[in-house]
Amino acid sequence: MHLYELPIHQLRDKIDRQEVSPAEVLAAFYRRINEVEERVKAYITLTEEQAGVRASEPLSGPLAGVPLAIKDNISTAGIKTTCSSRLLANYVPPYDATVVNRLNQAGAIILGKTNLDEFAMGSSTENSGLYPTRNPWNLECVPGGSSGGSAAAVAAGAAAGALGSDTGGSIRQPAAFCGVVGLKPTYGNVSRYGLVAFASSLDQIGPITKDVADAALLLNAICGHDPLDSTSVDRPQPDYTQFIKEGVQGMRIGLPREYFSMDFDQEVKTSVLAAVQRLEQAGARVEEVSLPSADFALAAYYIIAPAEASSNLARYDGVRYGYRSKQNAKLSEMFTSTRSQGFGDEVKRRIMLGTYALSSGYYDAYYLKAQQARTLIKEDFDQLFKEYDLLISPTTPTTAFKFGEMSDPIDMYQADIFTVPVNIAGIPAISLPCGLDSKGLPIGLQMMGGHFAEGKILQAAYTLEQLLAFKEQPAEVGGAE
Amino acid sequence: MISKKDVEYIARLAHLEIDEQDKEVFTNQLGAILDYIDQLSQLETEGVEATAYTVPMKNVFREDRIATSISREKALANAPDQREGQFRVPPIIG
Questions:
Q1: What is the pLDDT of residues A351-409, one digit of tens each?
Q2: CB–CB of A201/A311 below 8 Å?
Q3: Is the Cβ–Cβ distance between A114 and A67 less than 8 Å?
């Protein structure tokens, strides 16, 4: 077993017992990165020098010496944070995001910054302004997105764990495509301070890890109230690792009829239902349930997210930071040419969609309507969580698709059909691998819970992980000998 | 249905310049997305309150006290152009 193959909790134990030093662990990961990065391209920036300095210092905390990767839309002081956009190609934040601060306080070491779809808008990393990341299970396939770099890095052993961000599925969908675990916390459970804003009422940072126990460990480190984010919720925080124990006896699990009746990959459906059966055999009570308004979630999402994005991305005008166009004889010319040259097509598409939805005469028909739909979707979920502990669905309608396969924007948007309702309702959800399809690509299962029910989700996910004992490794990057 | 003229108008509001060929593409794509979104009109929302944030929230206040902030130097470090400790921009009028 190579060090880079170990989950965080095992690495940390080895470091704690002084079987290996943080510097040796770090060296093992950079060796691995050198081996696989040319094929996978998970990273935008590697921070080997800073990481080396840090590994030589005395480190303490629950993640002491653990090397992690950070999605490149999360601010890191003194380290480029590009959002995979030409507009921010040379932007160096003057401050750390709260989650980065907390990881540092917990003793973690940052390996580098990972690739994403530009400004986190996409489901494949094909919208990256730099280059796409490739799926370690099959290099001809996308890793998912937008946190594709983080998921691919973890799957390839190029990071022990990573942070991603999830606005409509951007943690869970790539986790599913890359055969790793991805957790989107409850809205407000993790501070967004320093996360470059895409859609502020939906964005949430969360962990991407090799296993469920690691997700609990990272969540422990990053969660909790932050005075710098007024939407972060002030409430007592449990120790999430206490939920890493087996047991679903008597747990009530709902399978949303509207999800399973959709037309999607039969192999994905079979695999997810087989996993559900394992939970049932372990004592969970499983029933079909109804989420009638969930059908409208994707439509509501494609109003709310672009509307908020069009407002959030108004700040990229070439004045204070980032790219400034050379065509700048006049201020207004500078604004327009900077944005036109700096943004990629998907970002432009969403800015225009959002601008349209918010423009005079359309606000009620689009934005207000979508916010009302959100109320109904949330109420549907709230109602179910009075009777059920968890809901289960596939994470994605298909396994990883090939580059270029989803050339139509709406086809691409459909990749998030099962993940988007969770963001609309603000609830937590996890994706964990439940098997492989006939092409040898991982299948993701999604567990959703009520607000702040991360503990229940982690316990059920851990139980399922033990029952399934999913041990397959990505074929295309292999172990090095 | 969204027209090419609409796209030109929105692009102007959003400070984006779209070339002729892309205008066609964007018009078709935005039209298709708006068609998809239109299914929301089937949802009965009469009298339903709008939700902006899903977790109950109220205004968050704090004392108005001066705390440490980013220095001028640091704040200007990413500036494309600066002079005398300030961001420098092209003429607004002229």
A1: 999 999 999 888 889 999 999 999 999 999 999 999 999 999 999 999 999 999 998 88
A2: no
A3: no
| B48 within domain boundaries | no
Tally of domains in chain A: 1
Closest Cα of chain A to B27: distance in Å? Answer: 10
pLDDT band at A193 (very low <50, low <70, confident <90, very high): very high
d(CA A201, CA A304): 9
Q: What is the pLDDT at residue B60?
A: 84
Mean pLDDT of A130-134: 98
Could you list the residue range(s) of the whole structural domain that residue A396 is in? 3-254+391-407+429-468
Asked if residue A275 has pLDDT above 70, the reply is: yes
CA angle A309, A310, A311 (to 5 degrees): 90
Interface of B with A in 44-63 (CB under 8 A): 45, 48-55, 57, 60, 62
Q: How many domains does chain B have?
A: 1
**Confidence band for A1, pLDDT divided at 50, 70 and 90:** confident
3 state SS of B48:
coil
CB contact under 8 A, A336 and B17: yes
Contact call for residues B36 and A410 (beta carbons, < 8 A)? yes
The first and second tokens of residue A93, run together, are 């934040």
Whether B15 maps to a domain, the answer reads yes
Residues in A touching B2 (Cβ below 8 Å): 356
pLDDT of residue B68: 87
Q: Would you please indicate which residues of A are annotated as catalytic (active-site) residues?
A: 71, 146, 170
CATH of the domain at A145: 3.90.1300.10
| Contact check, Cβ <8 Å, B89/A319 | yes
Contact: A375, B2; criterion CB under 8 Å: no
Residue A33 lies in a domain: yes
Q: What angle do CA A157, A162, A165 make, to 5 degrees?
A: 140
Angle between helices B4-13 and A345-358 (to 10 degrees): 90
Measured between beta carbons, the chain A residues lying within 8 angstroms of B54 are 187, 201, 374, 378, 424-427, 451
Q: Mean pLDDT across chain A, nearest whole number?
A: 96
Q: Mind listing the pLDDT tens digit for each residue in A312-361?
A: 999 999 999 999 999 989 999 999 999 999 999 999 999 999 999 999 88
> Does residue A418 belong to any structural domain of this protein?
no
Q: Which domain holds residue B35?
A: 4-42
CB contact under 8 A, B50 and A368: yes
- Indicate which CATH number applies to the domain containing B33: 1.10.20
Please report whether residue B23 resides in a domain.
Answer: yes
Instruction: Assess contact for A192 and A225: CB atoms under 8 A.
Output: no
| B24 falls within a domain | yes
